[in-house]
Every structure is written in C-alpha cells, then in structure tokens.
Amino acid sequence: MKTVEVKPCQPMPSRMRVTVTLPEDVHQALSEWAEEEDRTLANLLSHVAAKAVRDRQEQKKEESRSDRT
After folding, report:
1. Sign of CA dihedral 58, 63, 66, 68
2. Whose CA is closest to 40, among 1, 8, 16, 2?
3. Residue 20, burial from CB neighbour count under 10 angstroms (0-12, 13-18, 19+)
4. How is residue 9 annotated by DSSP?
5. What is the pTM of this model?
C-alpha cells in the first residue's frame, strides 16, 4: 500500500488537506487516469470527491422529495 498526501497547488483557507492510504493497484490506476486527463493525482481525487458529494446531495434531495409524495 502507498500513502498519498493530497495537497492543493496553492494553500487556500477554504481547502482542507487529507492523507489517503491506497492499495498499490488503485494508486497505479488513479495515476494513469490522472495522466490521461492531464491532471495531477491530487486534482483528480479532488474532482472525483467533489462530484461524488454533489451526486449524493442530489440523491438525498430526490429521496426527500419522494418521501413527501
């Protein structure tokens, strides 16, 4: 397993730093993905995490709407 520290390019007060431990095969796959998209690994992980949060929030909104009907 490799430990990857995700750091923003420029420190900003509104961004948080997280350390993630990944299996080597997952790290390799993500590194290749990031390279294909011309992103850093940290930027790819930030993008994927933000999208997952947006998707989850939308799913919860839809569940809330369906509970009211």
Report:
1. negative
2. 8
3. middle
4. S
5. 0.71
pLDDT in tens, 7-18: 666 665 588 889
What is d(CA 29, CA 18) in angstroms, rounded to the nearest whole number? 20
Neighbour-count burial of 46, counting CB atoms closer than 10 A to its CB (0-12 exposed, 13-18 middle, 19+ buried): middle
Q: How many CB atoms lie within 10 A of CB 45?
A: 19
List own/partner pairs for 22-30 with CB under 8 A and 24 or more apart.
27/2
Pairing outcome for strands 2-6 and 18-22: antiparallel
Residue 26, strand partner residues: none
pLDDT digits over 18-42, tens only? 999 999 999 999 999 999 999 999 9
